[in-house]
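User: Continuing from earlier, I have the next pair ready.

Assistant: Great, send them over.

User: Here they are, in order.

Assistant: Folding the first of the pair now:
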Amino acid sequence: MPTPPSDSSPALPDDETALVHLGRSLRAAGYRGNALFTKPAVRAMQRATRGVPRLVNIISFNCARTGAGGGGLALDLG
């Protein structure tokens, strides 16, 4: 497997940490709604990125942008 890109932030070790990280990032961006991602979706992002925060942010942004017309529902794996 390729080595993930270097990042000055330490890797997010598990899905709960990734969930907290995403919550902080979304609040910093001004989001004040309900949870945007389900726990299985966060787990998939954490595993796919090996917890590299920058990559988690990129994937979550692209998922949120793609799912923006979903009427306020949380984004899931389906």
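And the other member of the pair:
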Amino acid sequence: MATVHLYFFAPSEENAMSEVTVTANGPLAVKGLKEIKNSKGQSLPVQETVYLCRCGHSANKPFCDGSHKKNNFIDEKN
């Protein structure tokens, strides 16, 4: 699986060095998040690695539920 590693500075010091991996035809894999909030500011459960939906079909947004597979999600640059 081809991946691209991106490092970014998040708004909080705790998330400052999270690592985002863009998976081919799949979700964003984010390692090192200490906190994630929804659009209402409510904290969401965080694990060592979280997988965030890129296809827009997940029933559990912002998290990936595997919907990209049954919807044949394909990266623009693949």
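Worth noting for the second one:
Residues 67-70 form the longest helix (4 residues). The two ends are 11 Å apart (CA to CA).
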